[in-house]
Amino acid sequence: MHAALPVLVPALFAATLALDNGLMRTPPMGWLAWERYRCDIDCDNDPKNCISENLFRDMADRLSEDGWRELGYVYVNIDDCWSSKQRDKQGRLQADPKRFPRGIKDLARYMHDRGLKLGIYGDMGTYTCGGYPGTPLDKIQIDAQTFAEWEVDMFKYDGCYSNATEQEQGYPLMSKALNATGRPIGYSCSWPAYQGGLPPKVNYTQLGEICNLWRNYDDIQDSWNSVLNIIDWFFGNQDALASAAGPGRWNDPDMLVIGDFGLSMEQSRTQMALWAIMAAPLFMSNDLRTISSGARNILQNKMIISINQDPMGIQGRRILKEKSGIDVYWRPLSKNASALVFFSRRDDMPYRYRTSLSKLNYTTGSYKIFDVFTNKAAALKDSTEFVVPVNPSGVVMWYVSAPAAPSRRHYKRARFQGSADDGENGDPLVVL
Ligand SMILES: *[C@@H]1O[C@H](CO)[C@@H](O)[C@H](O)[C@H]1NC(C)=O
Ligand SMILES: *[C@@H]1O[C@H](CO)[C@@H](O)[C@H](O)[C@H]1NC(C)=O
Ligand SMILES: *[C@@H]1O[C@H](CO)[C@@H](O)[C@H](O)[C@H]1NC(C)=O
Ligand SMILES: *[C@@H]1O[C@H](CO)[C@@H](O)[C@H](O)[C@H]1NC(C)=O
Ligand SMILES: *[C@@H]1O[C@H](CO)[C@@H](O)[C@H](O)[C@H]1NC(C)=O
């Protein structure tokens, strides 16, 4: 059943259109200020962390010098609290001159000079969530033009202080206004998050036509509780959400908080793995100047990034929720490959989860599996029982290659790296 899906699904997607700006054919990646830096405007007392051009320049330096850019992390995104409390004499938004003395256009050039892109933030209401000037209906055109003149590459349109009627008009209008500037600007819509995130209130077909990505649900916070809540909401509603995603249009479960304070290493791996399964945008919100090597290794894991960035852009699903507290997630990938994640909700000790690929509905054949965190590989017949030890609040994640025609040589090679005979049915028991 699963092996057939990758063949069928692209035909379904052909019927639905994505926003036609040519952008974000794979989930966008980069860095976004909000979760870690919020509305810190106190540059006198907190010059390193306040929302200022220095912060964004620092992050751009790290992205371009520490190997992030080459992996795809190219957006540097400003969030709320960047502007002056007043529009200028021509009615245009302006950056706070104290914190952005060189202005946004200069900051965009700083990004472009380093092969990076700049994102900016606005709000559909009279005010932004942080109380700065909003972009209500009558300001949409002038603000879109301003962002284009500044050579901004992405725009997040929040929804505080606006009502459903205004949102219905404003989100499509901004899409048109951005297009009319002639500058390709990635468009992130917070609209569904303000309307409960689910049909019938949210029309995902329409969102896919006007936005590149959209926040469906609550803001992420720097805690495991928040990450788990988001995981449960997105996979609990996967039937409504997964088909909305595809090249150029993505569900956005919000930022990666890996490298901050709230997640253990196990939980950090879980966030990375499940964001890849979800084909989620990968926007880190952390301090790249001081990030630990452990967090960096997770965020820079090439195999997980390539799973996240799979060109088919099919959002994965939770396929099992076991009474034991183990969840299994699956995402079809190009070249008939797939990704599997085994996640433990347990809080006692590593749990030895036992299954086989055929129990997970893989078709008959011999598969090559690659553990993305341990870099171990093995060949696995669909019928072979295996055991994965999954740590509390942690994951095991596999890249599973297309089945090869069964051959003896394959089975001989299956008996390596911890493989053992379980003696029950004669099949080798593979433990990775
Ligand atoms: C604007 O929309 C048209 C038609 O959908 C598309 O061909 C064009 O590339 C878009 N331009 C920009 C800058 O997004
Ligand atoms: C939404 O806000 C506008 C003012 O911008 C107001 O005219 C309209 O009545 C409001 N609609 C609802 C449903 O509250
Ligand atoms: C959702 O949006 C699409 C595209 O704009 C439209 O064709 C469809 O009628 C809408 N569906 C509903 C239920 O409003
Ligand atoms: C994928 O599998 C289908 C049948 O299951 C096969 O026809 C096709 O050639 C395979 N594609 C690749 C790239 O292996
Ligand atoms: C496997 O397929 C059967 C039949 O379609 C389905 O009932 C079952 O839930 C599937 N199991 C998994 C793990 O996807």
UniProtKB/TrEMBL annotation:
Keywords: Disulfide bond, Glycoprotein, Glycosidase, Hydrolase, Lipid metabolism, Lysosome, Signal. It is found in: Lysosome. This is Alpha-galactosidase. Its EC number is 3.2.1.-. Belongs to the glycosyl hydrolase 27 family. Residues 1-18 form the signal peptide. GO terms for molecular function: alpha-galactosidase activity. GO terms for cellular component: lysosome; membrane. InterPro entries: Aldolase_TIM, GH, Glyco_hydro_27, Glyco_hydro_27/36_CS, Glyco_hydro_b, Melibiase/NAGA_C. The keyword Glycoprotein applies. The keyword Disulfide bond applies. Pfam families: Melibiase_2, Melibiase_2_C. GO terms for biological process: glycolipid catabolic process; glycoside catabolic process; oligosaccharide metabolic process. Residues 313-394 form the Alpha galactosidase A C-terminal domain. Homodimer. Gene3D superfamilies: Aldolase class I (3.20.20.70), Golgi alpha-mannosidase II (2.60.40.1180). It comes from the Eukaryota.
